[in-house]
Design brief:
It is built from 3 helices and 6 strands; from the N terminus they run ααββαββββ. The chain is α+β, with helices and mostly antiparallel strands. Strands 2-1-6-5-4-3 form a 6-stranded mixed β-sheet, with helices on one face.
């Protein structure tokens, strides 16, 4: 298996940047589109465990748009072959540190989609 093929890594970096832009601007339609629309998609957050695209979409649609700005640190994106990637980062928001990991899969009819995500606060 080839790791970090340059063209695949560039695509994944662009997808991750799109997610980050949508997150900090509360672009709910883009956030919902980037998570795979499937009952097996999951998101573990600091205070919630969301199972399935519908639960994630409901969370996103009711989340406050206030105070979403954050700074990223130590972002590592790794691709495996042409259709699987992981993205991990640390962030600072309102003086609190956290970490985020995402598993992305490229689907032939959908493109890159998040199939699993985990967000937690440190300390």
């Amino acid at each position: 298996m080839e790791v970090d093929l340059p063209e695949v890594l560039a695509e994944m970096r662009a997808a991750f940047a799109e997610y980050e832009r949508a997150l900090v601007t509360n672009d709910v339609p883009v956030l919902q589109a980037l998570f795979r629309r499937d009952a097996r998609t999951l998101r573990y957050g600091p205070a919630e465990c969301l199972y399935g695209w519908e639960a994630i979409a409901a969370f996103r649609s009711t989340r406050s748009p206030v105070g979403l700005a954050r700074e990223l640190e130590n972002t590592v994106i790794t691709t495996f072959g042409r259709d699987f990637a992981v993205a991990n980062t640390e962030f600072v928001r309102a003086g609190k540190r956290g970490r985020q990991s995402q598993s992305w899969v490229r689907f032939p009819d959908e493109g890159w989609r998040i199939v699993a995500a985990h967000v937690s606060l440190m300390g």
